[in-house]
Design brief:
The chain is 53% helix and 16% strand. The chain has two domains: 2-53 and 189-213, no CATH class; 60-184, Ribonuclease H-like superfamily/Ribonuclease H (Nucleotidyltransferase, domain 5, 2-Layer Sandwich), CATH 3.30.420. The protein has 219 residues and is α/β, with parallel strands linked by helices. Residues 59-189 form the DDE domain.
Length: 219
């Protein structure tokens, strides 16, 4: 039941109270605060296990940053995805400069263990400055039209931001999105996949989720 509640919360654009109501419809009476506590306590553990199970990332990284409002102040959500649309990592920061870009690149290299063949960004000069220092041998393409994959990856975050009535702190945004994006990776549907292929991929995702959580996912 707990893993089901956590799956609902991170997989779909639902508020805590919506999850509470969906559980109540199944005869499971818990408070939205319980759902929040479950998400906080075990969400990161699930995300780490998902990350270990996913295939190796692609060799082309798309990086982008988008402004988000937290407690009335502008912050920047930096996100990297590969050419297949899988989210590699995110980082919530208060700055949009070379230092912030370097933090993202170093975090990515630490997590991925290898530099990409190509890095694609918009024309923000901070990326070029950071790349020269952190990944000097990587090809860097700067063109807004090439980076639609990274820009599109922000859309689910925008939907969650509206449902949650904005993030309460940078830490909360970082913790939530770190789990949210990994769950999305596990259940991600390829844009051009056929229905039969999608059903097989979804079955594999549910099997992985079952193994990660140790219980059968409710259908």
């Amino acid at each position: 039941m707990i893993s089901y509640a956590v799956w609902l919360y991170f997989r779909f654009p639902l508020s805590l109270r919506m999850v509470e109501e969906l559980l109540a419809a199944r005869g499971i009476l818990v408070s939205h605060e319980s759902v929040r506590q479950w998400a906080m306590k075990i969400g990161q553990s699930f995300a780490k296990q998902i990350r270990r199970r996913l295939p190796a990332s692609g060799d082309k990284w798309h990086l982008d940053e988008v402004a988000i409002s937290i407690a009335g102040k502008k912050h920047w959500l930096w996100r990297a995805v590969d050419q297949h649309g899988a989210v590699l990592d995110i980082l919530v920061q208060s700055r949009r400069n070379a230092k912030a870009a370097k933090r993202l690149l170093r975090k990515l290299l630490k997590k991925q263990g290898i530099a990409p063949r190509v890095m694609i960004t918009d024309k923000l000069a901070s990326y070029a400055a950071a790349k020269r220092e952190v990944m000097p041998g990587v090809e860097h393409r700067q063109h807004k039209g090439l980076n639609n994959r990274a820009e599109n990856s922000h859309q689910p975050t925008r939907r969650r931001e509206r449902i949650m009535k904005r993030f309460k702190s940078a830490g909360q945004a970082q913790r939530f999105l770190s789990v949210h994006d990994q769950v999305a990776n596990l259940f991600r549907r390829s844009t051009h996949s056929k229905a039969a292929d999608h059903r097989r991929a979804r079955a594999r995702a549910f099997q992985a989720w079952t193994e990660i959580t140790g219980v059968v996912t409710v259908a």
